[in-house]
Specification:
six-stranded mixed beta sheet, about 450 residues, globular, alpha+beta
Length: about 450
C-alpha cells in the first residue's frame, strides 16, 4: 500500500473516531423534551410493543442506536400541515421511498402522527447526498428510528423511566400554580392535584393562606425530569379545614381512586366546575342587571371568564338533551345527568366534535369551547345547574359522594392512611421514611 493511501486510511479512521466522539458529547448534554400526554400520540402497541432501551449504548451507535458514521445531521422543526414526505423530499429521498417507509412502519408508528413543533432528526450520507435515517421523538420516553433505505429495520425504542416518591408543599400567596412552581414541583402537578380535588374543592376559590402538602410520583429519564406520575397522597388546607386525599385501588375498580381519611370517596356525582382555570365573573342571582339589555332580571347561572377557545368539560356523565344555537344563549349544550341533575353550558364559541342531541358523554369530557355567542359582552361560560328542574347555585350545591372503600378492604386502606398521613403532616417524617427505604433497596 502506498504512503498516500496509508495516510488517507489513517485520516479516515481518525475522522470516524472524532465523529463518534462528537456524537457522544452531544448526547451527554442533550436534554429530552418533556413528555406530552400519552393519549395525544398513541402507538399501536398491538403489533409492536417497543423494546426497552439498553442501559449500555454500543460505541458503534449514537444515542438513538443509529450506526456511527460521517453523517450530516439536520434537525427539521415540523410546521403546521407539514407531512413526512414534505420533510424528506427536500433531503434527496424519493416519493416512492417515503411511501415504502410509511407502509412498512405504520404498525410501529404512523407517520401521520407527527406533531407540529416537534423535531425530525435526519441523517444524511454525504457520499450519496441522500437521507439514510430519520429519528422522531413523540415523547421523552419514546423515539422512533426510521430506516429510509431498509424500512423493515425501523423500530420504536422506549427509554427506562425512573419513578420515586417526592414531596412538595407551600402556602398560597397569589396563585396555586405559582406557589407550586416555587416549591420546585412540576407544572403538570397543579393539574393532577386539581383533578384529585375536582369534586370537593373549587380551585377558583382558593385564597391566600391556604396550604398544600403533596406526595407524588416523580419521574425522570436518565436524570432529566419529565411529567410526574400519580398523586400518592395530598393534604389541602382550605379556609382552615384540612382535606386529605389518599390513593387506593379497590378490587372492583379498574384504576386507583382517591378517598379521605375515613375511606369516603372524593369523587362526586358532578364536578365542582366545568373549566380547569378561570375566574368567576358573575354569580347566581335572582335579580341582576343584564350587561347587554340593561334591565334587571334573574341570572340563574355562574359566569366563568376565560379566553375564547378554553375547553369546557361536562361535569358528569349524562345524555345531551340539546346542542345548538338558541337565541340569547348562543351556542348552547344541555346535559341530563340523572333523574336529579341537569346542567347547561351557554355562549360557547362552538361545540366539540360529535356533541349532538342524544349522545352520551363521560364526566370530564370536552363538550365545547368558551366563546361569546348570543347576548354576551365578552368571552365567558355561563354555567347552569338544575335540580329536579329548579335552577340552583352551582357554587353552593352539596354534591353526593360516590361509593366508599369496600368493607372488606377497610383494614388495608386504613393501614395505607396510617402510613401516608404522617408523611403529609411532618416533612421530617417523609425524609426519614425515604432515607430508610433507600438504605434497604
Amino acid at each position: 500500500m502506498s504512503t498516500s493511501s496509508t495516510t488517507r486510511w489513517s485520516t479516515a479512521l481518525i475522522g470516524g473516531a472524532c465523529s463518534v466522539f462528537i456524537l457522544m458529547m452531544l448526547w451527554s448534554v442533550w436534554t429530552p423534551d418533556d413528555a406530552p400526554p400519552e393519549d395525544e400520540v398513541p402507538v399501536q402497541a398491538a403489533s409492536f410493543e417497543g423494546r426497552p432501551a439498553s442501559a449500555e449504548t454500543p460505541e458503534t451507535t449514537d444515542a438513538y442506536g443509529v450506526p456511527a458514521g460521517d453523517w450530516t445531521i439536520t434537525e427539521r422543526t415540523i410546521r403546521r400541515n407539514q407531512t413526512f414526505a414534505d420533510l424528506l423530499l427536500s433531503e434527496g429521498v424519493s416519493y416512492q421511498q417515503v411511501v415504502n417507509v410509511a407502509r412498512a412502519v405504520e404498525d410501529v408508528y404512523n407517520v401521520r402522527r407527527l406533531r407540529t413543533g416537534k423535531t425530525l432528526r435526519i441523517y444524511n450520507d454525504p457520499a450519496t447526498e441522500t437521507a439514510r435515517y430519520a429519528v422522531y421523538e413523540p415523547s421523552a420516553r419514546r423515539y422512533v428510528v426510521y430506516d429510509l433505505q431498509d424500512p423493515a429495520n425501523s423500530e420504536v425504542t422506549e427509554r427506562t423511566v425512573t419513578t420515586e416518591w417526592a414531596r412538595a408543599s407551600g402556602t398560597i400567596d397569589g396563585s396555586l400554580y405559582q406557589t407550586m412552581i416555587d416549591s420546585g414541583a412540576h407544572p403538570e402537578l397543579v393539574i393532577k392535584m386539581a383533578d384529585v380535588y375536582a369534586w370537593q374543592i373549587d380551585f377558583f376559590r382558593l385564597q391566600r393562606g391556604d396550604r398544600f402538602d403533596i406526595i407524588y410520583e416523580k419521574r425522570s429519564i436518565e436524570g432529566e425530569r419529565i411529567r410526574p406520575g400519580d398523586v400518592v397522597a395530598a393534604r389541602l388546607v382550605h379556609h382552615g379545614t384540612p382535606y386529605y386525599a389518599f390513593r387506593f385501588q379497590d378490587a372492583s375498580d379498574d384504576r386507583p381512586e382517591y378517598y379521605d381519611g375515613l375511606g369516603n370517596s372524593l369523587r362526586r356525582e358532578l364536578l365542582r366546575a366545568p373549566l380547569d382555570y378561570a375566574r368567576v365573573s358573575s354569580r347566581f342571582s335572582h335579580n341582576r342587571r343584564h350587561p347587554v339589555l340593561g334591565v334587571n332580571r334573574p341570572h340563574h347561572g355562574t359566569d366563568y371568564a376565560a379566553p375564547t377557545g378554553t375547553p369546557v368539560r361536562s361535569v358528569g356523565e349524562g345524555v345531551v338533551e340539546f346542542a345548538a344555537y338558541k337565541g340569547g344563549n348562543g351556542n348552547y349544550v344541555r346535559i341530563r345527568h340523572n333523574g336529579t341533575y341537569t346542567t347547561g353550558y351557554l355562549h360557547l364559541n362552538r361545540m366539540a366534535e360529535g356533541i349532538r342531541r342524544g349522545v352520551t358523554v363521560e364526566q370530564g369530557e370536552v363538550i365545547g369551547y368558551v366563546g361569546s355567542t348570543g347576548l354576551s359582552t365578552g368571552p365567558h361560560l355561563d354555567y347552569r345547574v338544575w335540580k329536579h328542574g329548579t335552577p340552583i347555585d352551582a357554587l353552593d350545591m352539596d354534591l353526593p359522594p360516590a361509593y366508599p372503600v369496600a368493607p372488606d378492604l377497610r383494614r388495608p386502606y386504613m393501614q395505607t392512611v396510617q402510613r401516608l398521613q404522617p408523611m403529609l403532616d411532618r416533612p421530617a417524617y417523609f425524609a426519614a421514611e425515604r432515607a430508610a427505604s433507600a438504605s434497604t433497596s
